[in-house]
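Today's session is about reading a structure prediction critically. Students often jump straight to the picture, but the first step is always the sequence itself: look for stretches that repeat, for charged clusters, for runs of hydrophobic residues. Only then move on to the predicted structure, which in these notes is written as discrete structure tokens rather than atom positions. Here is the chain we will use throughout the hour.
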Amino acid sequence: MDWEGREESSNVEDRRGRGKTVGIAAGGAGLVIVIVGLLFGFDPQQIAQFLGQGQQGGAQQEKPADPQEERLAKFTKVILHDTEVVWDDLFRQMGKQYVKPTLVLFDGEVESACGLADTAVGPFYCGADHRVYIDLSFYRDMERKLNSPGEFARAYVVAHEVGHHVQRLLGYAARVDQARHTQPKAEANRMTVRLELQADYLAGVWAYHGQKRYKFLHAGDVDSALHAAFEIGDDRLQKKARGYVVPDSFTHGTSKQRMRWFQQGLQTGDVDAAAQLFEARYEEL
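Below is the predicted structure for this chain, in token form.
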């Protein structure tokens, strides 16, 4: 993926070095929570509740700058700027104004308006403060633990979280917030699946328009992102952790669904078509 030499976003807060090292003891269903939390979207407050049962310490760490980590930071800032350019243009075409999110880089743990979040949460978007939070060590976890290397796979992660910001600006997130407070858990989970799949779709929409503008894709890049989507499907994660799946507990969608909707957004670039994620029957997603 081509990204070097392009402008970085200025909407960045670098809070690295302020966190603490936290160990986690997890097994069985708890492991599923951590793995899914690593990828795109559990409420940080929910994760914090889980982590409260497994923390094993918290000494402050000071560490020298790591050139590889700084390269990942620069990469993330460039991708965020790419999303800003694309979504600003798309919102203007819709007669709307795109309010840019802020990227927060952290390590160890971070305080957000959604609560205290640990490294294990991985990237997340907090709608209460309009910030995307990323611990850069997550990129290494993608490669080592989830077998999902590649810069475009990492860009997909960033674009997915920005997709959650777009959803809040367009009003989709409010519908899911309401469902979480008024619907039975199984139905609320289905609404959350719709939201996550739509964020995958919007990540694809960004990639479609980003490719037209920047020509940043190389051969194999799309496959790397699709593989990442496959690896973090609810069915695959639950099967690996438990040996079986519980569809009513899905919150992000199956591997097949995540791949499908990211690819559809990438192929069409149609923002308006994102509505179908909330209009289609759940069985048709």
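Discussion point for the tutorial: The chain is about 55% helix and 10% strand.
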